[in-house]
């Protein structure tokens, strides 16, 4: 009996040893077939798509992005009308955004009259489009720095949605055309503080001495952002009228009183104030710049202050 039992136990152990590798092998096949292979295929397809996308994007020009805005996507029979509408809306926005971004490099701005005509036409047709499309097309016109768009933007401001006004005003500032000043002055008393703030920056970009009295008045605005923009704009025009405000902007403790201004925005404001102070060579401002160049916590800020002082 003991001999039979030993043989039986031996055979049982042998069967288990055979079954376990078979089960593990089968499990590996399942995992490999249903998880690993599809995953690798998906990764390969993603990389292929990304590579093709990059290759095609590199060859795109301003006309291609403008065509995206005009086309707004292709119709697909199986999609609902609502979905098609939203898809085209998003594609027009994406095209307008990419066009504006592309034109931020002056070397990418076409010089042909054809492009300017098409951009003007698309902008005029965008009045009832998604706000973002309108805004980025306006910025695209501003980035061309072609003054032919001055009147287009001025006309666009007529009955414009309030959400879009700031973008059109900012774009007029980028064109740096004194012909826009009379229109911009009208927005210095606008009820929306953001629009007033963008307006003083746009006026400052034009750098026309006739606007100094308007900017000096803006130094007394109830909104701090407007005061800051006016002081920087005046300094860029070699006018020291906003010196006290610039001194505030060069003080982090002052900026920390504004909870809506995060540390990154603080740094950008200080850098703008440093650059503006560089136009004035004012003794009091230079003393503050010297302090900043030694003690500010941000290395870029210290470096910018030092460069201005060296000049």
Features:
311 residues, mainly alpha, 16 helices, 0% strand, globular
Your description of this structure?
The protein is mainly alpha-helical and 311 residues long. It has a domain of 96 residues. It is 73% helix and 0% strand. It has 16 helices and no strands. The N and C termini lie far apart (106 Å). About 5% of the residues have low confidence.
Rg (CA only): 31 Å
What's the pLDDT, averaged over the residues?
A: 82
What does the main sheet amount to? none
Number of strands: 0
Distance between the termini: 106 Å
Helical proportion, percent range: over 70%
Strand fraction band?
Answer: under 5%
Unreliable stretches covering 5 or more consecutive residues: 73-88
Structural class determined from secondary elements:
mainly alpha
Specify the overall morphology: globular
**Total number of helical segments?**
16
Helix and strand pattern:
HHHHHHHHHHHHHHHH
List the helices and strands and how they pair.
Layout: H1 2-58, H2 62-71, H3 81-102, H4 113-125, H5 131-144, H6 149-156, H7 162-175, H8 181-185, H9 193-206, H10 212-218, H11 224-236, H12 243-249, H13 252-255, H14 263-277, H15 283-295, H16 299-310
Helix pairs in contact: 2-3, 2-4, 3-5, 4-5, 5-7, 6-7, 7-9, 9-11, 10-11, 11-12, 11-14, 12-14, 14-16, 15-16
């Amino acid at each position: 009996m003991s001999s039979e039992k030993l043989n039986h136990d031996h055979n049982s152990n042998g069967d288990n040893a055979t079954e376990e590798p078979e089960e593990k092998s089968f499990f590996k096949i399942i995992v490999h077939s249903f998880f690993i292979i599809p995953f690798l295929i998906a990764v390969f397809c993603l990389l292929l798509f990304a590579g093709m996308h990059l290759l095609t994007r590199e060859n795109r020009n301003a006309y291609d992005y403008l065509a995206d805005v005009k086309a707004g996507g292709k119709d697909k029979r199986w999609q609902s009308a609502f979905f098609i509408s939203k898809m085209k809306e998003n594609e027009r926005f994406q095209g307008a955004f990419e066009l504006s971004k592309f034109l931020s490099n002056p070397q990418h701005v076409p010089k042909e009259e054809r492009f300017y005509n098409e951009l003007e036409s698309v902008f005029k047709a965008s009045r009832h489009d998604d706000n973002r499309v309108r805004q980025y097309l306006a910025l695209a016109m501003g980035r061309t720095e072609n003054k032919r768009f001055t009147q287009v933007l001025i006309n666009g401001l007529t009955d414009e949605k309030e959400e879009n006004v700031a973008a059109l005003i900012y774009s007029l500032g980028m064109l740096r055309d004194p012909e826009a000043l009379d229109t911009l002055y009208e927005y210095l008393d606008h009820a929306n503080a953001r629009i007033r703030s963008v307006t003083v920056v746009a006026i400052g970009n034009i750098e026309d001495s006739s606007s100094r009295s308007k900017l000096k008045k803006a130094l007394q605005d109830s909104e701090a952002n407007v005061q800051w923009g006016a002081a920087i704009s005046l300094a860029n025009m070699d006018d020291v009228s906003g010196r006290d405000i610039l001194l505030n902007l060069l003080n982090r403790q002052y900026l920390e009183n504004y909870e809506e201004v995060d540390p990154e925005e603080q740094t950008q404001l200080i850098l703008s104030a440093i650059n503006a102070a560089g136009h004035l060579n004012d003794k009091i401002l230079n003393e503050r710049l010297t302090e900043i160049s030694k003690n500010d916590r941000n290395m870029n800020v210290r470096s910018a202050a030092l460069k201005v002082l060296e000049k």
